[in-house]
Specification:
The chain is mainly alpha-helical and 548 residues long. The protein has helices spanning 4-9, 18-24, 49-65, 85-95, 118-130, 141-153, 172-180, 233-243, 259-269, 303-309, 313-324, 326-329, 333-338, 355-366, 371-385, 387-395, 397-405, 425-429, 453-465, 473-486, 493-498, 507-519, 527-534, 536-547; strands spanning 36-39, 68-71, 134-137, 186-189, 198-203, 207-212, 219-221, 248-252, 275-279, 283-286, 289-292. Belongs to the class-I aminoacyl-tRNA synthetase family. Glutamate--tRNA ligase type 1 subfamily.
Length: 548
Amino acid sequence: MLDRAVVDALFPSDLPEPSFWEEQYPPRQLPEGAKVTRLGPSPTGFLHIGGLYVGMIDRDVASQSGGAYIVRVEDTDQAREVPGAVDQFNRAFAYFGIEPDEADSVGSYGPYHQSQREQIYLTYVRELLRQDKAYLCFATKEELADITARQQATKLPTGYYGRWAIWRDKTAEEVQEALDAGRPYVVRFRSPGKAGERTSFTDAIRGQLEHEANRNDVVILKASDQSPRLPTYHFAHAVDDHLMRVNLVIRGEEWISSVPTHLQLFDALGFERVEYAHIAPLMKQQGGSRRKLSKRKDPEASVEYFIEAGYPAEAVKFYMRGLVNARLADLPLSEALEAPISLSECGVAGPLVDLVKLEDIAADHVATLSGPEIIERISAWASTYDPALVSVLSDERDSALAALQVERGPEVANPRKDLRKWSDFRAAYGFFFPSLFELVTDRTDERLGGLSPELISAFAADFADGYADLEDGQEWFGQIRELAGKHGFAPNPKEFKKNPDAYPGSIKEAAQLIRVALTGSNRSPDLHAIARTLGKDEVLRRVRALAG
RNA sequence: GGCGUGUUCGUCUAGUGGUCAGGACGCUGGACUCUCAAUCCGGAAACACGGGUUCGAUCCCCGUACGCGCUACCA
């Protein structure tokens, strides 16, 4: 055991005592059962969709219990830090309306960046050292690698424990000698775990869990030759969550294995243990198997992906809530967003992120919005991701409204579901704006369905020549029907199916020619409505272009 | 390797010691549309495997397989 003087000499002389911090961050005055939760994103890139997922649960559980939700940036791995990441996080949280009660600028339990909490960590490291619950370890990278290699060779569990913990029982003289030589060191926790011992704990989602006790003398403070001196996740978790008075730690299930270590740390520090809830991670289909969504390999693992594409935040939240608590997926969207999440109802398996289902949900949701609402949302999105579209929408707002008015609005029983995300707008409605529309002139274009160019040309020319901008939908469509007959199309799909060789196609295919000419797409709102909105001149311009 | 954790239609899941194992997305057939989509109706589609316990097991127990995670001075 080191002399207290030796220990203290390792730290700044004005380093506060634990009692100082305890007073600085007193227990919260909160109602019975209030949960204080926190998310600890690591600023190593974009926010992972899993982070948003867990943050949403944190936010919800804290709110419904009258507690608080904290975002604490876990930037203790400075080598992997990416500049600007924190701003990205904040934008993402804002987009989805999952904002913390306490973070950088708000809250009295900060600072909320771990890199700014060095003094706090050092206080508690010194305390552990004074009590001999931690010790200095001067092992080099090579020695550590050698230990691991030997353990693997003899099929022993790897780690720094028992006889492998070479610095655990060094004498004060030996330590002093290393110190005098100026060798860098880390501080390790002196684990009280014994071989064969087991620990069990309760997880709010999974119930009783059992694990062999930790025996590893984990590193709690990183290398002494770095500044600032930062703790490892394990130690920061114990110190921060205690001092921030967090009482429910919701995190990914990859932490389950570390709980025994965390429990030992809380006990050694004299902190009250916290409750844990381990969430199953979001997965991704990969060939026949599945794996965790990876920030590096999967674009959709990044929250930015959803923001950039313009998925409505409510739809994404609704989808995610359904994954958290399947019960919520059966509720109408607005109710599901209000209904409380229940930890005990969380799945334990790890769901695959199904973008197709998300899109279905998003389409349903956008269909409930009014034209003006949609334009507003698209404009907000486009201001960042499609600036050109912003000016089109404001310069030609009437066209935009008219376009979105087609088959949409309160008087329509089955509104169109052709918008899933804001970036769909150009493809689905761009043709309403002359400035965004590109004439279809290539009669071999595959959108036209493979009809002969001559037929297409003749049909389009005929249509344009006799075109009347009729107000009645049936009469208007009568023009297509008549021409279809004249050019040899079957009067209806059934007839065509019965005798496919006798016709180039049916009225369907004929109508598609006009659809593609007018909209550039195989899918569009009602043709008559489009033609009326576009106006006769524009209709003729587009159809003539196809005629050649 | 060790430890942990998980496994109901393709996907998200509901569910119980006796159910025709339910729903949703997707897929698919049809209806409605003399046009796209939407909508409506129908269909195919699952209890990982092997042992127990039991009159009976998808459900309880034990194994096996497979997935995932941890085993870092990464979180």
